[in-house]
Each structure stands twice: as structure tokens, then as C-alpha cells.
Amino acid sequence: MMEQPTSRSSDRGSILILTLVLTMVLSLIVVGLARYTMAGLATSDVSTERTERTAAATAGIYFVVEQLSVSAPAGCPAQQVLASSVVPGDVAVSVACSKVTTTESPAIYELVARTTDGHIAGQISVSVQVRTEMSSPRSVRVVEWDGNDV
After folding, report:
1. pTM of the model
2. Residue 1 and residue 137: Cα distance in Å, rounded?
3. Which tens digits make up the pLDDT trace of 15-42?
4. Total H helices, total E strands in the chain
5. 63/77 Cα distance (integer angstroms)
């Protein structure tokens, strides 16, 4: 006749403790992964905003450069705030334009574009050379491009 193994009283409930320990370890791993994912998403949002603002400032510069190439010899357009319909995204851009040289041709203009929504954003400074002795549209060449994060 076979004897049935008897259970020891010291082993009773050990599976419950083991299950609770494993549940706690797995919970800590899941919480850590969730925090890591959330930090990655937050970083991605900041990067996307910064890229959008830099693209908007760049579009503002190109818009004013285009105006310089087709405008009358009056030269630099007044400071402009470009609506989001002109630049990509929902960001308005302010472009300041000033003439650096005293000669008419080639004339050097300094353009500075900044986003105007109050957030930390990219700033772009550009030196543009305009030759007026040619027919319309005038020859416009970007001499220096400096994109800074402000």
C-alpha cells in the first residue's frame, strides 16, 4: 500500500507569498517602463515644437527674401508679423529687416526672424545681398545664415 505524502504545516501559504512577491516585482517593472515611455513622449513633444518654430522662422525669412527680390527699389520692407497662413504650423513670426550698407548695389540687408508666441523658440539671422542693376526680379543671394536657439 502506498502512503500519501503529508503536507508540512511550515509549507502552507508559501505559494501565496511567492505570488505576491512576483506581482510586486512585475508591477515595479511595468511602472518603470511606463515612466520611461512618458519621458520619451515629453521629449518628442518639445523637439516637435522647436522644429515647428524653426521652420516657421525659416519660412518668414524666405518670405521677406522673396519680397526683396520683387519689390521696388525702396528696399527693406517694414518689420512684419507674418500670419500662420504664410508660415507652417500655428506660429506667427516677426521678421525685422534693416539695411546694413549705404550702397545701392549690391545692398546688404540683415533679416532677423523670431516666433511671436512667447515661447522659447528658434531665432534666425540672415545677411542678404541684393543687386539692383539687373532687371526684375532682382538678384538676391543669402550671404550668411545663422540659426540660433534662444
Report:
1. 0.61
2. 109
3. 899 999 999 999 999 999 999 999 998 8
4. 1, 5
5. 11
